[in-house]
Write a structure and sequence with these properties.
Length: 353
């Protein structure tokens, strides 16, 4: 089957072949930006999730194999808060997973007990770093283990956006936003970050020692989770799983534009994470150092669709099939909103004290 095919019979036939049983229905679900996801029902009423992965020329990690192997690893080690892997077809870039029945988890519905579940899950991943496994997991997606590697990553992202091909109002507005807003404030945040490091006595040279690194899905949070009817929370999306700095994990949870946790839940998450990683004495200082820098990075992530390969991925996965111009303007508005958020939060950084 051509992965770009939208013919129902082609899709069902492929899924039937992979599962070795007749598929009676396959329905597009999910709001992801990387893959096409289907709810699949077979003739014996078994339910699965089928994931069709975008075949990217710029990905340095084979996302499908990594996600499938990660879920095998978690399942083999008794982690119940993630889907079980079922089948994989490398030729057709399709993998099958356990179907999780439940509801999305809006940020404003998150409770302290939910935060505890999230932190416990992250701690469980830390425990698994001591487990031997045939696959050696890579660094998580764009993991930065030093202060300067994070700054270099942000600068590289901005450079790519400045070179992005295109014309029209959206592109002109994006370039103006980079030049007049994002780049100048990045310089300010780098200076403030170095001042925080000096005040905290945390070195900015050298890499984070391996003992303080952990496993992470790279994009963990309630935006990538389902709440079952029994209130159990199951976490999804392990395409970029690997080694990471917990300071990035905390920053991403607090900053993620789709999660939008309330201030009390941000504070709760921050405090519980520091308690859970109490052996890492510099973790709180590192979060204060990098929080606003990761905010800038999020501004660039939200502009990914201005880069042709990322736009193709978005169009591959997007159910709504929006007009390209609309997509770009929406993403630009989100990026500007993120910048406003981190500028205001930097003035009241008490959630990180």
């Amino acid at each position: 089957m051509n992965l770009l095919s939208t013919e129902p019979d082609d899709i069902k036939s492929t899924f039937s072949s992979i599962l070795s049983r007749d598929v009676i229905s396959s329905t597009r679900i999910g709001k992801g930006k990387n893959s096409r996801v289907f709810h699949v029902v077979t003739d014996d009423r078994s339910e699965y999730v089928a994931k069709l992965y975008f075949d990217s020329a710029i990905d340095q990690v084979e996302r499908m194999g990594l996600e499938f192997d990660t879920l095998k690893f978690l399942s083999a080690n008794g982690v119940s808060r993630a889907p079980s892997p079922i089948a994989i077809d490398y030729d057709r870039n399709v993998a099958m997973y356990e179907y999780i029945e439940g509801d999305e988890i809006p940020g404003d519905s998150v409770t302290e007990s939910d935060i505890t579940v999230l932190v416990d899950f992250i701690v469980e991943l830390k425990r698994l770093t001591k487990v031997n496994w045939p696959r050696v997991f890579p660094p998580a997606r764009e993991a930065s283990f030093s202060h300067y590697s994070l700054i270099e990553n942000i600068e590289r992202r901005i450079a790519l956006l400045k070179q992005a091909p295109g014309s029209g109002d959206a592109h002109e507005s994006m370039q103006a936003f980079l030049s007049m807003d994002l780049i100048p404030i990045l310089k300010d945040f780098v200076s403030l970050s170095l001042s925080e490091a000096k005040a905290s006595g945390v070195t900015t040279s050298g890499a984070l020692p391996e003992i303080y690194r952990t496993y992470s899905p790279s994009d963990v949070g309630f935006h990538n989770a389902i709440r079952r009817d029994n209130n159990e929370i199951v976490f999804l999306d392990f395409e970029y799983f690997g080694w990471d700095d917990p300071a990035k994990t905390i920053s991403d949870i607090l900053l993620h534009p789709t999660m939008s946790l309330s201030r009390p839940m941000q504070e709760c998450c921050y405090k519980k994470m520091l308690e859970a990683f109490a052996n890492d004495k510099t973790l709180g200082a590192r979060v204060r150092m990098v929080y606003s820098l990761y905010g800038i990075k999020w501004c660039t992530i939200l502009l990914n669709e201005f880069l042709p390969e990322n736009l193709k991925r978005r169009q591959f996965a997007d159910i709504s099939q929006r007009d390209v111009g609309d997509i770009l303007l929406i993403q630009l508005r989100k990026s500007k909103a993120m910048l406003s958020k981190i500028k205001s939060e930097f003035q009241e950084i008490d959630i990180l004290r």
